[in-house]
Specification:
single chain; 666 residues; f41 fragment of flagellin, N-terminal domain; TIM Barrel; eight-stranded mixed barrel; five-stranded mixed sheet; 21 helices; 16 strands; 64% helix; binds ligand C2E; binds calcium ion
Length: 666
């Protein structure tokens, strides 16, 4: 780039010098020649006039001489002879003067005329005087001769004068013709020169322009190499460079450096549904929001996609890192305005510290990434510090994924069922199917340990279909055999399944095959599904609802808890999360919260289910709050299909005297 720059400058300078030299040289030459021609033009008429005058004078002097000779012939007195002599002398003197004044020969045009006229005049003059001096003037013959000669001379002088004047005229017109041609040539030369210089100037400008463009692209390339074009934040290489420096610094001084790894929750959705332009705009604004939370010495970078990082050097303690992380989460949770659309997003943040979580930039980054994933698993919109346990967790994760795939083939999965009771009727209103895994080495595994992995890997899509089918098959069995109350079957469907194409057709096929009625099926979904800005999910839920299937929102209160969202979806049941029920007896605030949720849900026509009811106090409080249904260890733990069958029929038997067919209306 450097050599290119100097070449461009050198050629530009050379071209410029060339143009200036040519212009000055040509202009000077033209000016000089023009000036000279002008002088000639001016001098020519003056010279001609003078010669004309001289010739005219000579002619009249000769005429006077002829007259004097005439007089001397008729009366040859002394005076008359003197007059002849005087006339001759006058001519002689005049010729002398002419000879002197015509001796200069500096002007081309003048000298041409000079050369033509002068010899003629001299010839005439000399001829006359010669004739006079050779003969004595007193004699009549001499006079006769003088007269004769003078008359001839007069005639010849006139003829010569005429001839000279003609020649002069010719020269003059030739001269002006040449002058005209010179002017044309001058103008043409100037025109060509202006074109040449214009081309050169254009060339210089073009070169400068090209050079400027090159410089710009060079700048852009340099920018590209270090900065992200969308957010103009430093990019991955630049960030790693700074991170490495900070790590080295920390090692030297023992100071604390933190690295935040920020990943937007559900960004892909925004990008897919609102378009890439708006996605980019969101990223830009997110970059600005993150920057608002950090100090001038900190660095915010975009690693790519929806991943951002923050480098926090010279930290007083790790608390500071968590405070900044929280501030970033808060700042990102405010709405974003994207071309008139109000959009909400949240982020998950992983934090690593140096010294402690890694000796080099890459390890710190990898571990922060892992901590970020943990934050996502914790329900998003939160942050997690890296712990070395996570590394162990990560390798467990991979192992588990491998096992999951073989588990389905080897029939290691099975279902347990937990009854859901109607508080008023004191009868089983529904049964929730819960997945179990009998691992050949690890024994019985709870879903919390493997469902997040199955969701992450997408395996849940296949597994979900299998378990829905299994639950329906088993439910068909325990709904036979004289069962008067017909409890519904609740099956959990995770968000990942909806994204994997779970919907009307698949459910219809399973219902058809198993013969289980759609009206007795409840699908439990999570709140997070409802805030997905994915129209397909919205339509799928409506499709399922139109088939007669009912929908329940699970774990209500742990996520977005926005009742307003529920209004837009065809929801039938609301399950209040276990955590509220657990604390509601001791914590008045929680009790009031549950009360509010119940009354609002009732207003929206939703049936309430309380999860995790373990004590009589909890049950009584829920009864007071007019909660319709309860589920929990107080009633029953999740049990095997066989046991649930017994439970259902025992219940019928126990209540036989007052047997009443309760048709569940949810
Ligand atoms: P969940 O949908 O909220 O299921 C209820 C969980 O609460 C079950 O845990 C159940 O055993 C537990 N539980 C019920 N009563 C009580 C109680 O009184 N006290 C306490 N402490 N816990 C109680 P489980 O079976 O371990 O399932 C955990 C989670 O795994 C479920 O939460 C659900 O989100 C997921 N899961 C279970 N089976 C499936 C499935 O088939 N598909 C999908 N997608 N997710 C499932
Ligand atoms: Ca559930
Ligand atoms: Ca639940």
């Amino acid at each position: 780039m450097k050599s290119l720059k100097s070449i461009v400058i050198a050629t530009s300078l050379t071209s410029l010098t060339l143009v200036v030299t040519i212009l000055i040289g040509t202009t000077a030459t033209i000016y000089y020649v023009h000036q000279t021609l002008g002088e000639i033009e001016e001098a020519l008429p003056i010279t001609l006039a003078r010669q004309e005058r001289d010739a005219g004078l000579l002619i009249s002097e000769v005429s006077e001489l002829v007259y004097a000779v005439h007089m001397a012939q008729s009366n040859p007195g002394r005076n008359e002879i003197e007059a002849v002599r005087g006339g001759v002398e006058k001519i002689e003197k005049h010729l002398e003067k002419i000879r002197e004044s015509y001796s200069f020969n500096d002007l081309i045009g003048a000298s041409a005329i000079h050369a033509t006229i002068n010899p003629a005049i001299f010839d005439v003059g000399e001829w006359i005087t010669h004739g006079i001096y050779n003969f004595p003037p007193e004699s009549p013959q001499t006079l006769q001769l003088v007269e004769q000669r003078a008359t001839d001379a007069n005639r010849d002088a006139q003829a010569l004068y005429q001839e000279a004047a003609d020649t002069a005229l010719q020269i003059l017109s030739l001269q002006s013709y040449r002058m005209g041609r010179f002017r044309t040539i001058t103008i043409a030369t100037l025109a060509i020169l202006s074109i040449v210089s214009a081309v050169l100037v254009f060339f210089i400008i073009w070169q400068q322009h090209t050079f400027h463009a090159l410089q710009q692209s060079e700048k852009q390339i340099r920018f590209r190499a270090n900065y992200d074009p969308i957010t103009t934040l430093p990019n991955r290489p630049k960030f790693i460079e700074h991170l490495s420096e900070a790590v080295a610094q920390s090692k030297r001084t023992g100071g604390l450096t933190a690295l935040l790894f920020i990943d937007l929750d559900r960004f892909k959705n925004i990008n897919d549904t609102m378009g890439h332009d708006l996605g980019d705009e969101l990223l830009r604004q997110v970059g600005v929001r993150i920057n608002e939370c950090v100090r001038a010495t900190d660095m915010v970078a975009r690693l790519g996609g929806d991943e951002f990082t923050v480098l926090l050097p010279y930290l007083p303690d790790e608390m500071r890192a968590s405070l900044i992380a929280r501030e970033i989460l808060e700042n990102l949770s405010r709405s974003f305005l994207l071309q008139g659309h109000e959009v909400y997003t949240s982020a998950s943040i992983g934090i690593t510290l140096c010294p402690g979580d890694g000796d080099d930039a890459r390890t710190l980054l990898k571990n922060a990434d892992m901590a970020m994933y943990r934050a996502k698993e914790m329900g998003r919109n939160t942050f997690r510090f890296f712990t070395s346990r996570m590394t162990a967790r990560a390798s467990r994760f991979l192992e588990l994924d491998k096992d999951l795939r073989s588990a389905l083939k080897q029939n290691q999965f099975f279902m347990e069922y937990q009854p859901i009771y109607d508080l008023k009727q004191n009868a089983i209103a529904g049964v929730e199917a819960l997945l179990r895994w009998r691992h050949p080495e690890k024994g019985l595994l709870a879903p919390d340990t493997f469902i997040p992995v199955a969701e992450e890997t997408g395996f849940i899509v296949d597994m979900g279909l299998w378990l829905l089918q299994r639950a329906c098959e088993e439910a068909v069995i325990w709904q036979q055999g004289g069962l008067e109350t017909r409890p519904y079957l609740a099956v959990n469907i995770s968000m990942r399944q909806f994204k994997g194409g779970f919907g009307r057709e698949q459910v219809a096929a399973i219902l058809e095959e198993t013969g289980y009625p759609a009206e007795r099926l409840v699908l439990e979904i999570t709140e997070s599904l409802l805030i997905e800005e994915d129209k397909r999910i919205y339509y799928t839920l409506h499709d399922l609802r139109n088939m007669g299937i009912k929908l329940a929102v699970d774990d209500f209160g742990t996520g977005y808890s926005a009742l307003s969202y529920l209004r837009n979806f065809p929801i039938n049941l609301l399950k209040i999360d276990r955590s509220f029920i657990r604390d509601m007896v001791e914590d008045e605030g929680d009790a009031r919260l549950v009360e509010t949720i119940i009354s609002m849900a009732r207003g929206m026509g939703l049936t309430m289910v309380a999860e995790g009811v373990e004590t009589v106090e909890q049950r009584e409080l829920l009864r007071e709050l007019a909660c319709k249904m309860v589920q929990g260890y107080l009633y029953s733990r999740p049990v095997s299909p066989k046991e649930i069958n017994v439970l259902l029929h025992e219940e019928v038997a126990a209540r036989l005297p007052a047997l009443r067919s309760t048709t569940l209306i949810v």
